[in-house]
Amino acid sequence: METKMSFRLPLILSAVLAAWSAGASAETIKIGVTPGPHAQILEAVKPIAAKNGLDIQLLEFSDYVVPNAALDAGEIQANSFQNQPYLDNQKADRGYKIEAVGLTVNFPIGVYSKKHKAFADIPEGGKVSIPNDPTNGGRVLLLLRDKGVIKLKDGVGFKPTVLDITENPKKLKFIEVDAAQAPRALDDVDAAAINTNYATQAGLDPVKDPILREDPKGPYVNLIAVRTADKDKPWVKILVDSYHTPEVKEFVLTKFKGAVLPSW
Prior knowledge:
Blueprint: H1 2-25, E1 27-33, H2 37-51, E2 54-60, H3 66-72, E3 78-83, H4 84-94, E4 98-106, E5 110-112, E6 127-131, H5 134-146, E7 151-152, E8 165-167, E9 173-177, H6 182-185, E10 191-194, H7 196-201, E11 212-213, E12 221-227, H8 234-243, H9 246-256, E13 261-262
Helix pairs in contact: 2-8, 2-9
């Protein structure tokens, strides 16, 4: 018995030391996310990254402005919540040195209504709320243009504003609200454009409930962003590779049932 124990003890100690060494060598990063799918997907990424020596801590932000400010200030090491047009706009306005390092998922934006079953049912002069940030607000106006609801000036790019509307046959009144508050606007307007993460938080089904829905393509694929100074660090590759796995893709498809689409 003593011989067996003396043989096993070094093995046990070796295993403990190996586990301690792996834990000690793991690098920890903080990633900013918005509540809902972005946070849920990163939770699925965490155990995969952990196996590759990267410990992920998630910080949830309730709006679209703070995550880039926190990243630029070094309070977090990465964020996952935005698309390229939004990032470009933030960099142009605020001078952030932030870059995209990998694509994540696409959230086709939807227009919802508690009062009407179809967008065509909205009466003349009806109220439609849209997000007040240039990227998402412009995204909704482009959706309405593509569906024949309004016409916009030529060459408006990805960030048109209500001032770029050239034809509005139904004389719709566009009300700009903070994206996070859009679900609350539903009671006060004929229709509200709501980003998928805020729609799911409000109990809406982003596949079945919209009376208009964006096509799941185009420039609005979401991304992982890091500071320019960090983009070539080894942990960045581990993070992106851990996200771009079959396991995470299967999680997205199963969990969100078409409301969120993998883009890798």
